[in-house]
Every structure is written in structure tokens, then in C-alpha cells.
Amino acid sequence: MISKQMQQEIAGSSAIRAMFLEGKEMAKQVGAENVYDFSLGNPMTPVPEQYNQAIIDAVRTENSLELHGYMDNAGYLETRQAVAENLNQRFGTEFEGSHIVMTVGAAGALNVVFKTILDPGDEVLALAPYFGEYRGYVANHQGILREVKPDTATFQPDLEDLQAKITPRTKGLIINNPVNPTGVIYSEATIQNIASILEEKQKEYGHEIYLVSDEPYRELVYDGNTVPFLTKYYDNTFVTYSFSKSLSIPGERIGYIAVSPCMADCSQAVQGLSVANRILGFVNAPSLMQKALVKSMDARTDVDYYDRNRRLIYGKLTELGFTCVKPQGAFYLFIQSPEPEEKKFVEAAKKHHILLVGGSSFSCPGYVRLAYCVSYEMIERSLPAFEKLAEEYRR
Ligand code: PLP
Q1: CA separation, residue 364 to residues 259, 340, 373 (Å)
Q2: d(CA 175, CA 264)
């Protein structure tokens, strides 16, 4: 018999699976071209050629035993140095290779950070709405996730609520910027305010409170927006990054943790992360991907593609009278449900073969998430269905 805990996990994850199966069933009945699946955050743009070529070159030129072999648990030093140099060039930071730990995507990075900083019963704050997997990642390490309310007019965090939620057991705060599911970028002013609240609370409680900056969407920004780089605002920061979205390679499972050189006990923290990488069973991040990254650190996917989708769908939804904050980054829109129970709105959308995810999955009921990392043509085909859906709420 599997554990009771896992039985609960299975029950909890069945909603998304049910949606996936429903979409497949729907496609059989009405044809795949008539199903408008906006439920998944799977990248849509081609993998940059520079990255593909770097993989081919690595296979052709590297010693195969080294290329596919074990390494230091933190990753190849040349890859860690390449990450550090890339960050320093872009953000004026002072990382060295020794501050970087290569990880199995952002999911691996977050688990490694929580394994390193949490004792059982420690609390981690997340700014709602947030990526639902955080609940599992914190629970994996006997942590307790506490939620901070958003200001729903802007979807910046409610800073008074943040202040009130910090307790002597608070060990960390996760910030995802740009945000899945709203597409909002937390502004520099927000970040500065958060940093000074945390500084004050660190002093009050006499221990570190870590900022964990989860930023797999950092490069997916529009209209010239930029995302503040958090080690510049707060010393006790771990930046967790993934190439899943910026290079469209979520299946390759590659990312990193950058530890602020100004963190208290920085080198012990890096040692902890390396040990966590090993004992969580990752051992190290994929070797071939690390080698390929050295030669393609600057490669980027086609952000304009997502921007074109964003303009089409945001323009149409607002024209139809739906309410949502204009996304500044990532590839999601967070729409206010026109009726109090978001589940009913999700069901109403399904009748028009539109698949959306309820805001409750992101701890923000009353909203739905639309992922526009889909083909432009699918968005165009879906517009009459959105018109019919809007019509239902006008009556
Ligand atoms: N964090 C956020 C906010 C995400 O949206 C995702 C994936 O969608 C992840 C982390 C996990 O990313 P990865 O595929 O690199 O593990």
C-alpha cells in the first residue's frame, strides 16, 4: 500500500490531469482544431539553433567519458563560471563560479534551496497568486507554506499582509518574477519595500530570512520592461533560474542557483546546496546540457512571438469586457471570473471548447489563468468562442 501522504497528493493533482484527459476527449469529438487549450505553460517557440549546435559540437568534440560522466555535485566549473560571467555582464553583479550551483531545472533548484535552509516546522511565505507546486516543494522538506495576499487591483503584493505574516519561524520568502499566473512584474519599488521589511524582521528575530527569487521567465518581458535582480536589493538571496522557458527546453531539466556573494555564511550555503543536490537524488544537473550551455549562454527564444499572442488575446478579452491586468512578462493572463465561483466560469468556457485553469490552483479563487504559449492561429480560431462566452455573461 502506498503512503497516505501520497494518496492525498494523487487526489490533489487529479484536477489538472482530468482537464488534460477532457481536452483529449473533446478533441476526439469535435476535432483537435476546434479545441482551444490554454491550460498548459509549455513553451511554443523553437529551440535556438545556437543551443542545438552546441549540443552537437559537445557530442562531437568532448571526451565522451567526461561528457557523460559524474562530476562535482555543484556542476562543471566551466559552466558555473560561464553563468557567473553572464550574470555579471547583464546585471553588474560580482558572482564567481563558486557562487553558482547547477540544478535540475527550477523545480530542482527550489527543492535544493528548501532542503538546505529549512528545519521541520519552518515557514516559507509565498505571494499569492503563486505557482501551485510551491506547496509540494516546501512540504517535501517539512516546511509550512504561508500565503501573502495580493492587491488585486495591480497584483503587486499586499505589503501590510506580508509584514503581518512574518513570524519567528519564517525562514524564507519566494518571489516569482515575472509572475506565473498573472504576467505581472513586481516593480523595483515593491522589491525595495520587501527588502526593507525583511531586513527589519531579520534584526527583530536575530536570524536570517532568505529571499528565494524564482525567475524562469526573466527574459520573457514585453514593452521594454525589466525585472529587478534581487541580489542587488537584499543580501540573503538565492536566485533560482531555469532555461526551460528562455530556451524552450523544459524536458532537458537544466537550471541553476546563484547565491549572493554577500549572503551570511555564503560558502556554507553553497556546500549545503551541493550536498542537497546529491542526497535528494539528483546527484548533479544533466552533464550534456551543462556543456552545451557554455557555448550558448546568450541564446534566447523568440520573445516577439509571445508578445504578438499577448497583444491579440489581451486586446480581444478586454474589448469583450473581461477584466485582467495587462501582462508585462511570462506568457500568462489572469482573468477575473465574471461570476463569483470560478469553477462555473471554467465549465462555461469548456462548453465553448476553451480550456482554462481555475485561480484556486494558484491560491487565488475568483480568477482563471490563460496560458498564451500556443500558436497564434489557435488564438485567432478561438476568438469567436470567446465572443460567445462573453455574450453569455452579457445577458
Ligand atoms: N517556477 C515557476 C513559477 C514555474 O512556472 C515553473 C514551471 O512552469 C517552475 C518554477 C518549474 O520550472 P522547471 O521546468 O525549470 O522545473
Answers
A1: 30, 12, 21
A2: 20
- Tell whether ligand 1 has an atom less than 6 A from the beta carbon of residue 217: no
Q: Is the separation of the CB atoms in 157 and 151 below 8 Å?
A: yes
Q: Say yes or no: CB of residue 176 within 6 Å of ligand 1.
A: yes
Assigned C-alpha cell, 152? 488585486
Kindly report the pTM of this predicted structure.
0.97
Cβ burial of 257 (10 Å; 0-12, 13-18, 19+) is: buried
Ligand 1 site, residue 105, Cβ cutoff 6 A = yes
Which tens digits make up the pLDDT trace of 75-100?
999 999 999 999 999 999 999 999 99
Beta strands in the chain (DSSP E): 36-37, 100-103, 123-127, 144-148, 150-151, 156-157, 170-176, 210-214, 237-242, 255-259, 332-336, 354-355, 357-358, 367-371
Q: In testing the pocket of ligand 1, which one of 44, 104, 133 has its CB within 8 Å of the most ligand atoms?
A: 133
316-351: per-residue pLDDT in tens?
A: 999 999 999 999 999 999 999 999 999 999 999 999
The three cell numbers of residue 334 are 489572469
* pLDDT confidence of residue 14: 64
pLDDT category of residue 9 using cuts at 50, 70 and 90: confident
| Residue 35 Cα to ligand 1 middle (Å) | 25
Please report the domains of the chain, with CATH numbers, ordered by start residue.
4-47+301-394 (3.90.1150.10), 49-294 (3.40.640.10)
The complex scores an ipTM of 0.99
Protein residue whose Cα sits closest to atom 2 of ligand 1 = 131
Q: Is the CB of 131 under 6 A from ligand 1?
A: yes
User: How does DSSP classify residue 221?
Assistant: B
User: What is the phi-psi region of residue 371: left when phi exceeds 0, alpha when psi lies from -120 to 50, beta otherwise?
Assistant: beta
β-strand partners of 332? 371
- For ligand 1, atom 10, the nearest C-alpha belongs to 106
